[in-house]
Design brief:
Layout lengths: L6 H20 L3 H24 L5 H19 L2 H4 L3 H29 L5 H30 L11 H28 L17
Length: 206
Amino acid sequence: MKKEHGMYLAYLFQTFIGLNCIYAFVAGNLVGFFSALIMFIVTLIPFFVAYKMKISFPWFVYFLIALSLWFHTAGYIQGYYEMYYPYYDKIAHLVSGTTVALLGFIGVLFLDRHWNMTLTVPFIVGFIIIFGVALGAFWEMYEFLVDTFLGGSLGGPMQNSLTDTMLDMIFVLAGSILVAIMGAIYFHKHHQCCNGESMTGDEETN
């Protein structure tokens, strides 16, 4: 099937991550190099899953994953977190929160499709928000542990204050609520599709 044009946005940000990886290696920043390399590999996971399971994700799933990982990669390697603090950091958490919530929504649609869970709109909304915020909380715990035991990450401390941490969580929550609203609208209009043709479809579009 013809490739969706939006996929090129995903490829673009994958390329940006790869360029950051090369930049870090040339600059002798080995920690940044391996971090960017891992981020790049993670962007390939959705392609591998889609291929192995013979399914197709919408193009914006690939794009948001690549965009989220680029935000964090460039933020540390290029110093954007410090250069554009606090705006860059908050946008990164908003995008990441949206991405994680979207993955949670797609995941629960798969469960509904294969297990016939007969989900309701309130459950969908609650699950998406809880899933997004929970993973956001785990990320903040990770930042706290890195600062506590390793003295920070590439660009210094990952958490600057309690206010900074709470704002991060609020932006993650905002992204999760956005996905929850859109997911509820989609699920309400296509609830019959969840037991037949799911959001992901049966044909490979990538």
